[in-house]
């Protein structure tokens, strides 16, 4: 495939119906997208850089692709900013973060290198920019400390007081996942203070062989560590995806470089959510975007590869803490994409699946309020590939999807004491379900063979709902 990186590459897919491409979620014009990188609000614009293989729909190389937005809902695809062509990053410009310093955007990323012997090397690198639209590489600023394998990557940098801090996702030589902690006064000389969290630390047992994409920030007076551990075993309704992304709430002690924390909670209970990254928005709110995908997936059989692209991002979410739990809500700006409102103030749901006037579509948002509680099971079907259910006797909320290219149904579940509202974003082949104002979230890709865009409701017992639906405007500009 001959790709001109200066130009958007939609022409490669122009001749084929691109039937699974979302309309308001960031997707790559061609190639593979994974982690969000360098998420930042800089000089009046949001930047979401991302892991991008522009040449193939696999993970064989990584550039930093780039989206910008003035408002968090309309995203422009820009020219790629980092290419893997130097001695310190030639096998991939891996994930990292961005900060602002003295009017410059400074990005930190992992230079991934496979040397002549086929061994992995890792370099934490810096790149700078005046306008955020192109990055000047400055090369490595941090070499691999002792005690870790070369699975050492994904630097996240922030400032507290006058000092800069960095955390990096690692694997120790004992093959345990941990987060390494560094500080610096000038962004180029970094002091290593050892790990602050990981397997066998702070009361945890073994907790995976590698921790990727760490992020540490404070919210409402508490410190939150987000991380994507690999190697956890499924336990009941927890950890059912191949890899997880979740958080610890705790307290970061910058004096003695320790982080004391509670238990690990998954951020998203659906099928496709990984490597989330946060930043502070223009209004001071803590925002999150994540890859709506999963590493080591069967890319060869993925339905969108016929159109030369694969994967996408979640919509931006705003974080808050309530009763020691992280809540995620769609950012308020998403309401600007709403058009053509349809509202049913009170509909009664019965045992047979039923469609309500105007409540359908493949690029929509819905708000569903539960008006009565006298029901046993509530069900909602989206096309023939997704079913959402809540059983009020067992308190199990579930998302069932038909696995693509098969007749197999897969389920993800969580316990929910009460269901009062659902805010659902459907976008052609993606669904994100925000439950009870963001108490739990389920994100998933799904693919249906027919062009069914129905939304159907049923229940056991008596249930009435208020349903509001909007069509969503297209908001991704390639
Ligand atoms: C997470 C991850 C990161 C790495 C990047 C490479 O999905 O494996 O640890 O930097 O993807 O694309």
- Strand runs, count: 34
Name of the CATH architecture of the largest domain: 5 Propeller
What percentage of the residues does DSSP assign to strands (E)? over 45%
Report helical residue fraction: under 10%
Number of domains: 2
Bound small-molecule species? beta-D-fructofuranose
Q: What's the story with the biggest beta sheet?
A: 6 strands, mixed
CATH H level of the largest domain: which superfamily?
Glycosyl hydrolase domain, family 43
Q: Which structural class fits the helix and strand makeup?
A: mainly beta
Give the radius of gyration.
22 Å
Distance between the termini: 19 Å
Shape descriptor: globular
Give me the number of helical elements. Answer: 0
CATH class descriptor of the largest domain: Mainly Beta
- Would you identify the regions where 5 or more consecutive residues have pLDDT less than 50? none
- Neighbour order of strands in the largest sheet: 20-1-2-3-4-34
- What is the fold named in CATH at topology level of the largest domain? Tachylectin-2, Chain A
Domain Glycosyl hydrolase family 32 N-terminal: 25-330
InterPro entries: ConA-like_dom_sf, GH32_Enzymes, Glyco_hydro_32, Glyco_hydro_32_AS, Glyco_hydro_32_C, Glyco_hydro_32_N, Glyco_hydro_beta-prop_sf, Suc6P_hydrolase
Keywords: Carbohydrate metabolism, Cytoplasm, Glycosidase, Hydrolase
Catalytic activity: Hydrolysis of terminal non-reducing beta-D-fructofuranoside residues in beta-D-fructofuranosides
